[in-house]
Design brief:
The protein is mainly alpha-helical and about 260 residues long. The protein has 10 helices and no strands.
């Protein structure tokens, strides 16, 4: 069943990978066109309001390797996070909206096993997208700048990207399990991501570290992970969120009437 799900979701994954590639290529050509004026651009950006800098993912000077990489990473991450939420909402719920749930859930396999198989297939897709995004970032953002000063940061930040994807996927899967209306679940999933983004902005703007725990977008922040590595406390919190969300989603789907 996992192989079948991977095959069925392959086309959509390729489309999303294409969008990420286009964004990274655009960023690369922008870098080439502004290579000699990055210092001036960085000075100009310093005059911008702090909240705008946060909204556009600028946490370091753009003329530094980490500053440029972090900014591009931020926009790539928004794309991959959107994909993660979509997978969480649609992976099982789409079967009901497409009228195939009755057939799927009458197979000689428990509903919990079906949900687990779909979840594993989605995590595999998220891993593929995260690795692909990391490679795109490396070749279009890191290499042109001569590499990052922080050794291994390209790998650890990509791992952080994948972990955040999994958290958002698990929460979206939970939403789809609790909410029986597919369209409403999609709206709730979009609202969840926007809410986390809003908390991210507020936490950064007001500099309140306690708020970081309320938004997965800060658990593996690109700048923090690049400089200090993955935070164990956030890693444990992520594991708890994922485990509880998937467990509850399995239970909800197992007991739902089709």
């Amino acid at each position: 069943m996992i192989k079948k799900e991977l095959r069925l979701s392959r086309k959509f994954l390729l489309i999303w990978m294409g969008i990420v590639l286009l964004l990274c290529c655009f960023a690369y050509f922008e870098f080439l066109s502004m290579r000699n004026t990055l210092g001036e651009l960085a000075e100009m950006m310093n005059a911008f309001p702090k909240i705008l800098m946060i909204m556009f993912g600028i946490g370091e000077k753009l003329d530094s390797a980490l500053g440029w990489y972090g900014c591009i990473y931020f926009w790539v991450a928004i794309l991959t996070y959107s994909y993660a939420v979509y997978l969480g909402i649609s992976s099982v719920a789409k079967e009901k909206s497409q009228g195939t749930a009755e057939y799927l859930f009458t197979k000689p396999v428990s509903r919990k096993k079906i949900v687990e198989a779909k979840a594993l297939a989605c995590v595999c897709n998220l891993f593929i997208l995260a690795v692909f995004s990391g490679l795109c970032n490396y070749f279009t953002s890191i290499l042109p700048l001569g590499g990052l000063e922080q050794k291994g940061a390209a790998v650890t930040t990509t791992i952080g990207l994948f972990l955040t994807e999994v958290i958002l996927f698990a929460l979206a899967l939970l939403i789809s399990g609790i909410n029986q209306n597919y369209k409403r679940a999609i709206r709730l999933g979009a609202g969840l991501l926007l809410g986390f983004y809003g908390i991210y902005i507020v936490a950064e703007y007001l500099e309140i570290p306690a708020l970081y725990y309320l938004t997965p977008l800060k658990y593996f922040d690109v700048y923090a992970v690049a400089r200090e590595g993955i935070n164990i406390a956030f890693l444990l919190l992520a594991a708890v969120i994922v485990a509880i969300s998937i467990a509850v989603a399995r239970k909800k789907w197992a007991g739902r009437e089709m």
